[in-house]
Amino acid sequence: MMINSFFKPNRLWLGRCQRVVIRLSLAMVACFIAFSTVQAQSTVTFKGGGQMYYEDTGGDCEVVLFLHGHTLDRRMWDGQVELLKDRYRVVVPDLRGYGKSADPEEGYQFTHADDAIALMDSLGIEKAHVVGLSMGAYVAGDMVALFPERLITCVMVSGETAAFTPPGTPRSAKEIANRKSSIAKVKADVEGFKRRRVEGLLGACHPSNRAKLRAELTREIMDWGAWQNLHVTGRVYYGAQAWNRLKKNKSTVPSLIIYGESERVSKGYSLPYLPNGKLNVFKQCGHMVNLEQPEKFNATLLKWLEDHPENK
After folding, report:
1. Which of 26, 68, 142, 260 has the most CB atoms around its CB within 10 Å?
2. How far, rounded to the nearest angstrom, does the alpha carbon of residue 117 sit from its chain's CA centroid?
3. For the segment 225-242, what is each residue's pLDDT rounded down to a tens digit?
4. Using an 8 Å Cβ cutoff, are 248 and 225 in contact?
5. Contact at 8 Å (CB) between 34 and 41?
6. Residue 90: strand pairing partners
7. 282 SS3 class
8. In this model, does residue 31 exceed pLDDT 70?
């Protein structure tokens, strides 16, 4: 009896200790996960003020830098981050004026390409695979033309180097007046403007893909602050400067240009100036290629990266 009475309370005590240890272990795991998540998120200061938000999977391996489309943010690349995070260091920023990054200062001239290079510099990244879609593709197009030494490869989706009006070109009085008129209309119904943007972007997708994209595009566009359509903005692409440089120097950076078949644009027009360039057109696909056909896009991107390692 004495032996039994001795072990009964000790079993209780042992059980309590085990539960405490389990709870502490779970708490430590939760803290580790939370800490890891925080470590993967940070900001850098823009030239001219404000903060750029980015997420970085880290690691001592080749870097893939993703650049999102207009009215969207870094979240459009979630599927690709998940695909690549164990094989590459993946860096995904919100460009200036989007997502969690600061809005531009009206009247201050900047370019998204310079911001991307500044982000790479701040993270000690010498070279990266740069992947951009739509607006992000134009930024990638600026980079492959003007900063080829900073790219391992360039993937331009639903866009490429384009001869837009370059930075420093003054806006005409008529252009400013038209812009202010457009701003007034947006201000009168910002939510309605953003909902029309959702429908417009869905309209640029293949009809068979629209239903599955609606929720994601709505989430990102409704979260967008619409700064670009509420201000007289600067020229955010190098545009014609990049195009002229590309035509003159013919960048040798391995470059993959991807379009959806239903995009009503000239596809691959920059290929004559990209000796190591390639065009891939996805059937039954429109503007939002990585969201419309994620499996095919992921397989295409992964093969491209594996076929073009930095030191090949």
Report:
1. 142
2. 14
3. 999 999 999 899 999 999
4. no
5. no
6. 64
7. strand
8. no
Per DSSP bridges, beta strands 89-93 and 151-157 are: unpaired
Task: Write down the number of H helices and E strands in the chain.
Answer: 10, 8
**Which amino acid is present at 113?**
A
In a domain, 148, yes or no: yes
Exposed, middle or buried: residue 119 (CB in 10 Å: 0-12, 13-18, 19+)?
A: buried
Please tell me whether residues 19 and 83 are part of one structural domain: no
Tokens of 110: 């900047």
Kindly give the residue spans of alpha helices, DSSP state H, lying in 250-293: 289-292
The answer to whether 86 touches 113, Cβ cutoff 8 Å, is no
* Domain co-membership, 135 together with 26: no
255 belongs to a structural domain: yes
Question: Which H/E stretch holds residue 260?
Answer: strand 255-260
Whether residue 204 lies inside any domain: the answer is: no
User: In one letter, which amino acid is 222?
Assistant: M
Q: Which of 136, 130, 158 is nearest to 74 (CA)?
A: 136
C-beta separation of 94 from 100 below 8 A = yes
Residue 309's SS3 state is coil
Rounded CA separation 50/73 (Å): 17
Rounded distance between C-alpha atoms, residue 230 and residue 264, angstroms:
28
pTM of the full structure:
0.87
Q: Is the Cβ–Cβ distance between 112 and 238 less than 8 Å?
A: no
Q: Are 47 and 31 within one domain?
A: no
Return the bridge partners of 257, or none: 156, 279
Q: Please give the Cα distance from 96 to 106 (Å, whole number).
A: 12
Whether 109 and 253 map to the same domain: the answer is yes
- pLDDT 10s digits, 174-200: 999 999 999 999 999 999 999 999 999
DSSP SS3 for 75: helix
CATH of the domain at 290: 3.40.50.1820
Neighbouring-strand partners of residue 157: 133, 258
Alpha-carbon Rg for the chain in angstroms: 24
